[in-house]
Amino acid sequence: MTNHPVNGGESSPPIAIELQGISKRFGNVRANQDIDLVVQRGTIHGIVGENGAGKSTLMSILYGFYQADSGAILIDGVPTKIYSSHDAIDAGIGMVHQHFMLVETFSVLENVILGAEQGALLKAGISNARQTLQHLADEYQLSVPLDQPTGQLPVGQQQRTEILKALYRNAEILILDEPTGVLTPQEADQLFRVLRTLREKGVTVILITHKLREIMDVTDNVSVLRLGTMVSTQRTADTSMEQLAELMVGRKLESQTFAKADPVDATIGLEAHNVSLHGSKGLTELDNINLQVRHGEIVGVAGVAGNGQSALLEVLSGIVTPTAGHLVINGRTVSASEPMDPAQMREAGLHHVPEDRLRLGLIKSFTAAESALLGYHTREKFNWRVLLKLNLIRETCKRLMQAFDVRPQDPALKSASFSGGNQQKLILARELDKAPSVLLVGQPTRGVDIGAIELIHDKLIEMRDNGCAVLLVSVELDEIMALSDRIVVMFGGRIVGEVNGANANKTELGLMMANAMDDVA
Amino acid sequence: MNTSTVELPDWLEIVVIPLLNIILALFCAGLIILAIGENPIEAVGIMLKGAFGYDEAVGYTLYYTTNFIFTGLAVAIAFHANLFNIGGEGQAYFAGLGIALVVLTLDQYLPALLLIPLAIAAAALFGSLWAFIPAWLQAYRGSHIVITTIMFNFIAASLMVYLLVNVLIQPGSMSPETREFATTAWLPFMHEFLALFGVTVTRTPLNLSFFLALLCCLITWIYIWKTRWGYALRTAGQSEAAAVYAGIKPKRIIITAMCLSGALAGLVAVNELMGVHHRLLLNFTAGYGFTGIAVSLMGRNHPVGIILASLLFGILYQGGAELAFELPKITREMVVAIQGLIILFSGALALMLRPWVVRVYLLMRPSAINAAAS
After folding, report:
1. Kind plus residue range of the DSSP H or E element containing A188
2. How far is A386 from chain B (nearest CA, A)?
3. Which residues are CB-contacts of A277 (< 8 A; sequence separation ≥ 6)?
4. Residue A419 lies inside a defined structural domain of this protein
5. Does residue A175 sit in the same domain as residue A273?
6. Is residue B362 in a domain?
7. From the CA of A285, how many Å to the nearest CA of chain B?
8. Order of strands, edge to edge, in the sheet holding A173-177?
9. Are B119 and B266 contacting, i.e. CB atoms less than 8 angstroms apart?
């Protein structure tokens, strides 16, 4: 253990967390190499890096999910061993995960005290907790309806519940992992206001994100991780987005701009007429959708996650049959009385890159070659009626991997062993290889690193230029704006607006996404 | 640390872990034998000798093995479609009815070369029919397959008692059995078959359905891993959502997988009725259907594993019988308890030792954790 001078002097700011020489290997992958990090108390500290740069590993070590192979963690200058999230909570560390850890049928209050019930009987604990929470909510301006089931709350409020959970456990250091992925720009702004309030009250915030704009907006200091090493820690004011991006990728990035297409005369590849989808519980998931995608254009569907985009993709791809209205796909009509399943959709030239790649796009326990066959095992090309042409399937997978730079190039490797970006490239390769005339793409770059994003975007534009009708669903507004020739905005299962891709602006789209246009006008 | 996501090489998963489970089970069994005042080492010796020591013992062991292969494969193929078929017992029992109906109707008219394939087909058909109903209920009515297949075991048992006592019983007989099948419906015994090649072995119940069992292993292996149907079945078993995305109909997979499963379970009746008893009788399934679950779990749902696990259970059945005979202190019930321990450790607690194996493995080969990290 190095003899570290405790930094408690009046002149320099006190240090909340200090990591010294943290290393963590997973086999021959060095997830973290000799990482030093100093986070000052009462600051918002951003950590950026590509996927696989080691951000998550580092935070998992800090939160006790993993133990570092070497190195030390100092909390408030005291060397601390963190073996579990329990230890982390005891040390005053709270974490808000990217995917919320809430019991949706429980109220906010019940969720907050879960695991901190103070005794076998709930009653006393609950009334104590109610007081404490009210106090916390007032202090940090974090109002949440305490008695409502969290599942009924908007995402932003669920996130606040998570923050309250951490504060209720006396967290003085709060780690947020990609907190804005599911928020509208406006909700994100609210979150940042909350974070600033927390900072004023002396809470230390660590913000993990890949959105550099947020880093610039809200953080005091920023650290950049690349390939498991800490390449820079500096004051946010002294740096710029361009510099951070370069540090993250390790090379200069050319900003991707694409010329917009406007194929007015092209034939229509995909058309939705008054399409509605009513769920089994009487829930209206899609409400009277009208949509056209011409060959040679990309139509972007913007919206906050959970406003019907997933249902739209399911209906358009044939996974779910619409309850009302009809679709026309390359001239073929699809409706409740004439349904088409995804296999028939593929025959009709409509291919689908699903948004949930782990659940739909591939099978984790299958080899890459088997996953590269998903949806096409009945094609004559891939079987002799009964037996699969396993050699051809393997060769095809290898070819796809080469074309889309999927690494490692090993068709026999389990699909789960590939990184998110490589899984996505494999799925994209599988679908694009079939020369689709209509392509549905859901969240093509979710959890994908910058290098792969470039390739994926290039491929989508290439498809468009080859005359494919592309429907792009994404929660990344930047992506929608960069790629789309037309943008439609979904809210509450409806299309609430349409703008031309060339003159879209972010504020306007953001307001549409929150269905708040009327309030402004 | 979450060890369940760490991938182990096949040899650890298929060979080492099951072997450790068996050793642990035998150790516990040894403690029990010690407690009743017998020598466990001696007991194991008697058991192994009873299972392998002489050709008659081998015959019996393989005869039991045959049944376990059929029921093990049945459970495995359903398992690959993410279905838990607990109804192997009832499906095998009902398949016996199929054999009896075909043979009793036709054995006076058809030659063996026609009758035997026809009766085997009837067994498979009736077995799959008995699995089809729970499968349909699962696919289209959402009734859980575990519950329905269990209940169908009872229905099959009651139905067979009724039919054997009231309908199919040989007139004038006191025991609820059909008349004996004509010899054209008998599957040749192994000792008869080997005699054709000049090999003389002692007479045992082992018959040619042993080869049928091995053939089924091969076909099941090809079906699951080499055909497009097997691909669809595994896809639906791994992720229903992905199956729908791929244009596979999960409901149809449920039906096909269960029918195939029932057909395989039904082949137990071929071994028992056409191979050994030569008549339909009560309770000929003797729990083979249930043991198939343990066999499949232990064999990791892979035909090769299932052959090995079936062999183990064959040894336990045959060697156990010998043990009860040789050591008076070890009763028949005692042997059942030992079998139960093996089932407990290699079935219910099959993955109990896995976290430790993973840890040891990772200590020796740290490069294996990549997958778990990402």
Report:
1. helix A185-200
2. 5
3. A284, A285, A286, A311, A315, A320, A322, A323, A493
4. no
5. no
6. no
7. 18
8. A93-96, A173-177, A204-208, A44-48, A221-226, A229-235
9. no
Is B239 touching A (CB cutoff 8 A)?
yes
Residue of B222, B245, B367 with shortest CB distance to A375: B245
Within a domain: A202: yes
Q: Which residues contact A467 (CB under 8 A, 6 or more apart)?
A: A266, A295, A296, A437
Residue to mutate among B3, B225, B228, B300, with most A CBs inside 10 A, is: B228
Which A residues 11-30 touch B at CB under 8 Å?
25-29
> Is B290 contained in some domain?
yes
Record: contact B228-A377, CB cut-off 8 A: yes
Q: Per residue of chain A (521 residues), give pLDDT as tens.
A: 344 444 444 456 789 999 999 998 876 667 889 999 999 999 999 998 876 678 888 888 898 888 888 899 999 988 988 888 888 989 999 998 877 888 989 998 888 888 777 777 777 778 888 888 888 888 888 888 888 898 888 778 888 898 888 888 888 999 998 888 777 777 888 899 999 999 998 999 999 987 788 888 899 999 999 888 999 999 999 998 888 888 887 777 666 678 888 877 789 999 999 999 987 666 788 999 999 999 999 999 998 777 889 999 999 999 999 999 999 999 899 999 999 999 999 999 999 999 888 889 999 999 999 999 999 999 999 999 899 999 999 999 999 999 998 888 899 988 988 877 889 999 999 999 999 999 999 999 877 777 788 889 999 999 999 999 999 999 888 889 999 999 999 988 999 999 998 888 888 888 888 776 554 43
> Does B171 reside within a domain?
yes
C-alpha B147/C-alpha B86 separation (Å) is 8
E strands, chain B, are none
Annotate A327-337 with b (16+ C-beta within 10 A) or e (fewer): bbbbeeebbee
Q: Quote the distance between the C-alpha of residue B257 and its chain's center.
A: 16
- Of the residues B222, B231, B245, the best mutation for testing chain A's interface (the one with the most A CB atoms within 10 Å of its CB) is B245
Of the candidates A45, A67, A468, the one whose C-alpha atom is nearest the C-alpha of residue A297 is A468
Q: Domain of B173?
A: 56-298
Domain edge (last residue) among A215, A249, A283: A249
Task: Give residue A181's domain range.
Answer: 15-249
Closest CA to B122 of B216, B289, B259, B263: B263
Give ipTM to 2 decimals: 0.85
Contact B239 A360 (CB under 8 A): yes
CATH code assigned at B277: 1.10.3470
Q: Which residues contact A329 (CB under 8 A, 6 or more apart)?
A: A269, A270, A271, A340, A345, A348, A349, A350, A438
Q: Please answer yes or no on whether A364 and B245 come within 8 Å at the CB atom.
A: no
Could you tell me if residue A306 is inside a domain?
A: yes
Q: Which tokens hold the place of A231?
A: 């390449």
What is the C-alpha separation between A129 and A167, in angstroms, rounded? 12
Does one domain contain both A460 and A327? yes
Contact (CB, 8 A) for A296 and A302: no
Give the separation between CA B70 and CA B206, rounded to whole angstroms.
14
Prediction pTM value: 0.80
Instruction: Provide, as residue numbers in chain A, all residues whose Cβ is less than 8 Å from the Cβ of B247.
Output: 318, 341-346, 375, 378
**B238: nearest CB among A361, A365, A417:** A365
Rounded distance between C-alpha atoms, residue B86 and residue A260, angstroms? 60
